[in-house]
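The instructor's notes for this session suggest beginning with a concrete chain rather than abstract definitions. Hand out the sequence below and ask the class to guess, before any prediction is shown, which regions might be ordered.
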Amino acid sequence: MCGIFGIISNTDNQQINSNFSKIIKSLFLYSESRGKEASGFASLKNDNIYVYKTPFPASDLIKSDTFKKSFSDNKRENLIKLTFGHSRLVTNGYEQFNNNNQPVVKCGIIAVHNGIIVNQKSLWEKYPAEKKESDLDSELIPTLLRKDLNNNETLSSSVHNLFDNICGMTSTIIFPVDYFNVILATNNGSIYYSYNEIEKTIICASEYFILKKVIEKNKLGNIFNEKNIIQIEPLKAVSINYNEFSVSEINLARNETFSNEQKNVKKLKIKEIFEDLEQKNLYINKSLEHSSFSIPAEFKENFQRNKESINKLKRCSACLLPETFPFIEYDESGICNYCKNYIKVESKGINEFEKLVSEYHRKDGKPECIIPFSGGRDSSYSLHYVKKILGMKPIAYSYDWGMLTDLARRNQARMCGKLGVEHILISADIRRKRENIRKNVIAWLKRPNLGTVPLFMAGDKQYFYFSNLLMNQNNIGLSILGENMLETTNFKSGFCGIKPVYKKDSTMTLSLQGKIKMLMFYGKEYLLNPSYINKSLYDTLDSFKSYYIIKHNTINLFNYVKWDETVINKTLIGEYDWETDPGTTTTWRIGDGTAAFYNYIYYTLAGFTENDTFRSNQIREGMMNREDALKIVNEENMYRYDSIKWYLDTIGLDFVSTLRTINNVSKIYN
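After discussion, reveal the predicted structure:
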């Protein structure tokens, strides 16, 4: 989720020492793809450890005077022995409060952390004597380690105990200043390193490709062989003794001991570098989860009035689709054209799927496939199936565009931590993405049109592009997508004036004619509402290209394995303690920060949501009867004001005025 990286060196090699600053810069810049919201580093020079962290991206940090001064002089008498850094994607703790940024400094231990410790609350309760100094789950790493070290545990046993205690996904670099040891440890395999024993130098990073690019860019191929980039396997830890320069690895699932554990009798001083940030354009993040709030009575009353009108709408006698659905027609029996033209989802069978993926199995232990992984229900089950049922070695890949909720991120951590799966997260410029969403929502509120609602979600579509890119970067030929065909809606393109396509290869299938018509529809809307012509336009066009034009090099698991909601929910909740949303009865879309808002618009203005189309498809598949489906949808379509407020707070819009505007728009059913 974040990028962690470092270089540990005790060499006279001038190629390394004279280019130390360039190497660190490269590590920062390539790691920034994993998190752009904050950054920091710790650096050991002589007997001082300098720590600097900032609520700005790495590309800003490396331009700072602090960075330049820290790495400008790296001669033998002033040699930097180690530096490790962090490029942050915010999950716990707002980055505008610098104590929430990394490296974490506590109890004489410095650490950087990638992942989420999902049981942090229970751990703080378990150890009430340990003082909490930030909002970070990462703070538990030095806290628990020092607690054990103070109880005369060895460094090895302390690291063992740490990973026994924590749940979720954790990859970390740890430096206890009273030891000569730097620890690299992971429970999901998201750390790679390259080691030159003769030159006494190690570089490490969260991804294979990052190290590969750093080696190439700095022309270090004569020192670090790209072919010898080593992945630290899940539940393994590596100790680097920078004094004698030795490497020792242990298995955290066994009672093993580092062979190079060595205490440092010198007292190293930790010196934190602080800058006055008041004069800078400090971004104030409001994206973290909030507590419940008092809902204005007018909203509840308005929703109830709308619900009464919606309940009177004519609906298909076989499914749930109402008369307000685009292009809907009913026959004399009251059955809609969507039911009459529906083509059932056919499963090609597990044997066929296993046969298909068998050619991608590898004997060299390297990753065999990419799993696009939102942290939602279907992608989580796909990761489970590929890893545990098929026995393959996947890389879980996520694209965070700023609307991935903390709930989804916690579920990603649960899955990858328990399965021991490497997680590559590509982070967009989240602040820019959220500003783009804000501009498009403001534009929509000026001229509401149900056909332009998908503009709010345009920013997430590049995940197809990055999926293809990661496959190339990691020399992987297989991507397995968990796409549930029952999620096909038709109404989003229908509100653009595009007739339904009944035979689909995927949920985003659209004919060439349909694509042209969609572009013409949006072109007209942009002319009628120039507020859409803003900085988000490039992002929107790129999203259209990624979604509808570029080739999606994926195989859909659910074309071969029958999608079963009960089995999926039981597996995820039972085996992985997968987290659900207390604000809704469904497990669908609960990790998507946009869903509650846009479904509120569809329900308020058109009288239905995605839930109606999803449950209607289940009726057509014979998975449930109409009576049960209608009851479920009535519950699922209830307002989710907490989630809507989170969304509006995150993009910087007022909850009350925004919903008042939506509630005052003319309804289709009035």
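Then share the key points. DSSP finds 24 helices and 19 strands in the chain. The chain has two domains: 3-273, 297-663.
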